[in-house]
Amino acid sequence: MGRRRRRGSGVRWLGHYSSAQSILVVGDGDFSFSLALAAAFGSGENIVATSLGSYEALICKYSKAETNVMKVERRGATVLHRINANNMSGHTYLKFRQFDRIVFNFPHAGFKGKEEDMRMVNSHRKLVKGFFGNARRLLQPYGEIHISHKMGYPYDAWDLKRLASESFLDMIRIVGFHKHDYPGYNQKKGDGPRCNEPFYLGVSCTFKFCLMYSY
C-alpha cells in the first residue's frame, strides 16, 4: 500500500510528493501516476500532467487512458497533450510556470533496436539531456527534478549524473523506486503493438537532482 503521510496541517503525501508542491509530470503514459497522486492528495490542483502524443493517440494506445484523464481532470489537475520533453520549456502554458517537483518516470526514446546497442543508448541520452535542459528552466530555485530509471546493464550506461551536470544540475540522492508506493500506477511500454502492456521494472531507483548551488 502506498505511503500516504501527513506532514503539517492539511498537507497530504504520497511517496516523495505532497499536496503542497507544484508538480509537473512529464510523459505520464496512461496518466495513472498523476491519478495516483491526485487521489492521494484529494485534489489534483497542484498537478500538471502531460503526454507526448495527442489525446486521440493516447486513448488508442492505452486501454485506461480515457478514464484516467477524465478522473485526473475531475480532481482539478491540468492535462496537456503534445508536450515534448525536449522543448517543453517554450510551451505557451508551461513557459510562465515554475514547479517544486518535475517528474519523468522511465524516460525512453522508443524501440529502435536492442537496449544494449550504443545507438539506442545514445538516443536515450539525447532524450534525457534535452529533458534536463528544459526542466531546469521550469524549476523553482529549491525544487527537484526526479527521474525514475531501471538499474543495471545497459541502463547504467545512460549516465544520468553526467547528463545532469552538463545541464548545471547536481544529483542530490538516489532512492529506491517501489511501484506499490503509488497505488494504481501502471508503467507502460508506450511503443509498438504491445504499447499497452507493462514493462518489467526489476530494480529501479528515483534519481533526484537540483539546480547547482541551490542546496
UniProtKB/TrEMBL annotation:
A Pfam entry, by short name: BMT5-like
Residues covered by the 25S rRNA (uridine-N(3))-methyltransferase BMT5-like domain: 24-188
Gene Ontology cellular component annotations, sorted alphabetically: cytoplasm
Gene Ontology MF, one: rRNA (uridine-N3-)-methyltransferase activity
Listed SUPFAM superfamilies: S-adenosyl-L-methionine-dependent methyltransferases
Biological process according to GO: rRNA base methylation
InterPro entries: BMT5-like, SAM-dependent_MTases_sf
Domain of life per record: Eukaryota
This protein's name: 25S rRNA (uridine-N(3))-methyltransferase BMT5-like domain-containing protein
Source species of the chain: Triticum aestivum
Source lineage: Eukaryota, Viridiplantae, Streptophyta, Embryophyta, Tracheophyta
Gene expressing this chain: LOC123116348
